[in-house]
Structure formats: C-alpha cells, structure tokens
Amino acid sequence: MEDKVILLDYHPSMFGMRARVALAVKGIDYEHREEDLQNKSQLLLESNPVYKQIPVLIHNGKPVCGSFIIVEYIDEVWKDKSPTLLPCDPYQRAQARFLADYIEKKVMETGNLIWCEEREEKEAGKKGFVEFMKQMESELGDKPFFGDNGFGFLDVALITYTPWFKTFEICGDFSIQQDYPKLSSWVKKCLEIESVSKSLADPDNVYNFYLTIKEKRGI
C-alpha cells in the first residue's frame, strides 16, 4: 500500500518549515494543508490534542507531533531514502540532538527579545544572539554543512530559522552576512539544494507577517 502523508502546517512557521525540508530532501510525496491558526481545523485539534499546534505529520492516518520528532520519524521510516539526516554513531546522534535543542531554545529566546520595543530587552536579545551565532560558527568550523556527511539533522534544525534572519536584522540593526561570514556561506550552500530552498518561506513574506502581527498587537 502506498504511504499517505499529510502535513498540517503554517507557511511562516520555522517549525513547519523544518518538517517541509525533511520531507523534501528525502523526496517524499505529501499533501500540504495550510492551517488558519486563528481558526484551527478539527483535524489539527484531533491530531494534536495536547498542544493543538502545527506541524503535525499524519502518516497513514497516524499523527506525529513536534518538529524535531517529525524529522526523526521521517528519517527512521524512510531510512532507505538519502540523505540520512541523523548521524549513525550514537554519540554523534546525541550531540546533534543536544545542539538542535540549543538552537531551538536560543533562537526563540533571543529572537523574541530582539523585536521587543524596550531598549534594554532588545539589547539583551542582541547580546544573546551574538553569543549564539559565534557558538554555531565554532560548531560549523570549516565544514560546508554541520553534518559530517553532508546536509543533515543540524542543518535542518537551523536553516528553517534563516528566513526570519532578515526580521532580526531589521529589528536589531545588525548584519548577519557581514558579522558571520561562515554561517552566511553555509546558508548559501543550503539554498543551493533545490529541495531546501523551495521548502523555506520567503524572508520578505516573513517580515510582512511580522509587521502584521505587530499591527494586530497595537505595537
């Protein structure tokens, strides 16, 4: 029986993009369903009754929730399809998971502060983001990708935040390309992979989405 794969998603979401990238690089056909987060579908509410959040991968009627869990599930279920995203070595796999968790927590923490209106919070966000970017450049080193064997789990973890970098730059008044050349080069290499670039939201659209959110909140 042919696999039936549905992705419940929201296009600007870095978490939804994470699932889209993993599916795309593996070459898995799926049905994409865009959610209205102000009016969530019954399918989403039933598929993720705990958090009621996207993304949700529904594989042959069974829901899988949480972006990193979805990426690992995709890698395990379709292990015969290249590339293999998670390292095969248990220690390297543990390290990749640790850094992926660091990426998620640090970018969300600093990003939310960078687009605050309060100067003190904004500066704290910028300082934390600088520390994060320096750490990731150190982790990348001189490799083209974070994965030792090419585009892998950590690349998926971070690349889906990059459509939001323009918003961070405008709000924080800094330049990622100028200040972090290694990561800028890494972004370009990732975007040369067609399945990756087609799965990401457009940075201009993300910024416009951010402006819409600001307007709705009366900022």
Q: Can you put this structure into words, describing what you see?
A:
It contains eleven helices and four strands; from the N terminus they run βαβαββααααααααα. It has a four-stranded mixed sheet, covered by helices on one side. It has two domains: 5-77, Glutaredoxin (3-Layer(aba) Sandwich), CATH 3.40.30.10; 90-216, Up-down Bundle (Glutathione S-transferase Yfyf (Class Pi), Chain A, domain 2). The longest helix is centred in the middle third of the chain and has 25 residues, at 90-114. The relative contact order is 0.13. The protein is an alpha+beta fold. 57% of the residues lie in helices and 8% in strands. The mean pLDDT is 94.
Task: Indicate the topology.
Layout: E1 5-9, H1 14-26, E2 31-34, H2 42-47, E3 56-59, E4 62-65, H3 67-77, H4 90-114, H5 119-140, H6 153-159, H7 165-172, H8 176-179, H9 181-191, H10 194-197, H11 203-216
Parallel strand pairs: 1-2
Antiparallel strand pairs: 1-3, 3-4
Helix pairs in contact: 1-3, 4-5, 4-6
Structural class: alpha+beta
The general outline is globular
The major pleated sheet works out as: 4 strands, mixed
Find the CATH topology of the largest domain.
Glutathione S-transferase Yfyf (Class Pi), Chain A, domain 2
Low-confidence stretches: none
Tell me the number of structural domains.
2
The CATH class label of the largest domain is Mainly Alpha
Rounded average pLDDT: 94
